[in-house]
């Protein structure tokens, strides 16, 4: 991979990291809020109706899931930026071959080539997370 391509991916990954930090901040408050009184003097922020309680719990659970997803992506993007700095970006971490440009276009933080990603998923490799564009 040439210097110009490396710089293009570095910029794309940096932009992704900024967006993900914004998503983390916006979803984090909802996901991590606690049930209890608030500053306006209400004794509770829990709705009184059973259906509202269920909806509130679902929304908080969904926000927690989105927050976890954003943080996992932040780690993947940070690792990809490290690979750019170290000169290993665009190389499969399993077999060492080049990752196809089309794959890097779709998933710029990809750690594995398509074949190795499929093999790791099929083998149930411990710690393997399919790299998806989320």
Describe this structure in words.
The chain is mostly helical and 134 residues long. Helices cover 61% and strands 0% of the residues. It contains 4 helices and no strands. The chain has helices at residues 3-31, 50-86, 101-106, 114-123. The longest helix has 37 residues, at 50-86. The two termini are 25 Å apart. Residues 35-39 have low confidence and may be disordered.
Question: Which features characterize this protein?
Answer:
4 helices; 134 residues; mainly alpha; single chain; 61% helix
What's the short version?
This protein is mainly α.
Secondary structure layout:
Elements: H1 3-31, H2 50-86, H3 101-106, H4 114-123
Helix pairs in contact: 1-2
Instruction: Give me the Rg, rounded.
Output: 20 Å
Largest sheet: none
Secondary-structure element series: HHHH
Which quaternary structure do these chains form? single chain
Q: Report, as a whole number of angstroms, the end-to-end distance.
A: 25 Å
Structural class: mainly alpha
Regions with little confidence, pLDDT below 50 for 5+ residues: 35-39
By DSSP (H or I, 4+ residues per run), the number of helices equals 4
- Summarize model confidence as the mean pLDDT: 80
Portion in strands = under 5%
Query: Which of globular, elongated, flat, extended, rod-shaped describes the shape?
Result: elongated
- The residue fraction in helices comes out at 55-70%
Number of strands: 0
């Amino acid at each position: 991979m040439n210097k110009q391509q490396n710089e293009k991916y570095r910029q794309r990954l940096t932009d992704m990291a900024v967006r993900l930090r914004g998503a983390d901040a916006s979803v984090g408050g909802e996901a991590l809020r606690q049930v209890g009184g608030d500053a306006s003097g209400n004794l509770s922020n829990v709705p009184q109706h059973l259906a509202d309680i269920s909806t509130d719990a679902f929304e908080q659970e969904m926000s927690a899931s989105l927050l976890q997803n954003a943080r996992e992506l932040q780690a993947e993007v940070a690792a990809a930026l490290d690979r750019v700095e170290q000169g290993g970006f665009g190389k499969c971490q399993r077999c060492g071959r080049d990752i196809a440009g089309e794959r890097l276009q779709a998933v710029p933080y990809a750690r594995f080539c398509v074949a190795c990603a499929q093999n790791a998923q099929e083998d149930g490799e411990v710690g393997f997370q399919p790299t998806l564009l989320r």
